[in-house]
């Protein structure tokens, strides 16, 4: 009797651990399950912000996009609120940042190179990035 009780407990424990391990594998495939490609999202964002025409500097905004392995955004994107759907641009930037945070890419030499913050100004009727040094 003791043997069968111990065997049943061991069997149940093993089965539960196996089930947990399998469900853990399913939930970790965040990027793969959505089918969203990082380069496609970057292309969409670049397309949305491509028309940078402006009449005043208050129409120019800066988005932090991506996540570097050592912290901070991987790039800054300047866009015009006059021609860009701001909410859509912000959502794409958040998706890109989330995917870059979740990616498990190994560090390369350039991952921690400084990405200087930028300010946006309307110069010659175009939103332009000015590096802050």
Overview of the molecule:
The N and C termini lie far apart (77 Å). The chain has helices spanning 2-27, 30-34, 38-48, 86-102; strands spanning 60-65, 75-80, 118-123, 126-131. Strands 1-2 form a two-stranded antiparallel ribbon. It is flat. The protein has four helices and four strands; from the N terminus they run αααββαββ. The relative contact order is 0.16. The chain has 133 residues and is an alpha+beta fold. The model is unreliable at 9-33 (pLDDT under 50). Residues 1-18 form the signal peptide. This is Lipoprotein. Keywords: Signal.
Notable characteristics:
single chain; 133 residues; alpha+beta; two-stranded antiparallel ribbon; two-stranded antiparallel sheet; 4 strands; signal; Lipoprotein
Explain the layout of strands and helices.
Elements (H helix, E strand, L loop, with lengths): L1 H26 L2 H5 L3 H11 L11 E6 L9 E6 L5 H17 L15 E6 L2 E6 L2
Antiparallel strand pairs: 1-2, 3-4
Approximately how much helix is present in the residues? 40-55%
- Biggest β-sheet: strands ordered side by side in the sheet: 1-2
Strand content: 15-25%
- Summing up helix and strand content along with how strands pair, one would put the structural category as alpha+beta
Residue stretches low in confidence (pLDDT < 50, at least 5 long) are: 9-33
Mean pLDDT, all residues = 76
Radius of gyration: 23 Å
Shape: flat
Task: Give the terminus-to-terminus CA distance.
Answer: 77 Å
- Helical segment count: 4
Question: How many strand units?
Answer: 4
Largest sheet: 2 strands, antiparallel
| Helix/strand order, N-terminal first | HHHEEHEE
